[in-house]
Structure formats: structure tokens, C-alpha cells
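FW: tagging you since you asked about this chain on Friday. Here's the raw sequence from the shared folder, copied in full. Didn't touch anything.
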Amino acid sequence: MAELMSSGIELMFAGMGIVFLFLTMLVFAINLMSSLVQRFFPEAPPTPATPHSAPSNIADKATVAAIIAAVHQYRQKK
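HL: got it, structure written out here
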């Protein structure tokens, strides 16, 4: 029985060691790939927006008014 237990513990530590080594190598590989991508493919600087340009995703005034009215009506009921 003791031999079986020691065998199981030995196998457990071997498996945990292999998983630990794999995860360590994975972290190093991801860090290496990240630094390579940042070095060879730098992020483009953002283009400055003009101060008076309106965003293109704003809905028309009627839609905004309808949303405001719906929110107001919802709050009145609650």
C-alpha cells in the first residue's frame, strides 16, 4: 500500500512539474511575441480630430427627443 501511495505522489509531482514548465514556457513565448509585434509593427499614432466636427454616429434630433421622452416617461412610472 505504501509503495502504491508513493508511486501516486511521485506521478502527481511529475505531472505538476510538467504543467508548471509548460505554463512558464507559454508565458515567455507570449511575452516574446508581444515584444516582437510591438517592435516590428508599432501602433500608428492617432489622428487628431478637428475641434468642430460632430461625430457621425449621433442620431437626428427627432430620435434624440424620442429617447429623452421615453426615458422621462419611464422614470415617471417608476
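FW: The chain is about 70% helix and 0% strand.
HL: agreed, and The mean pLDDT is 88.
FW: great, closing this out.
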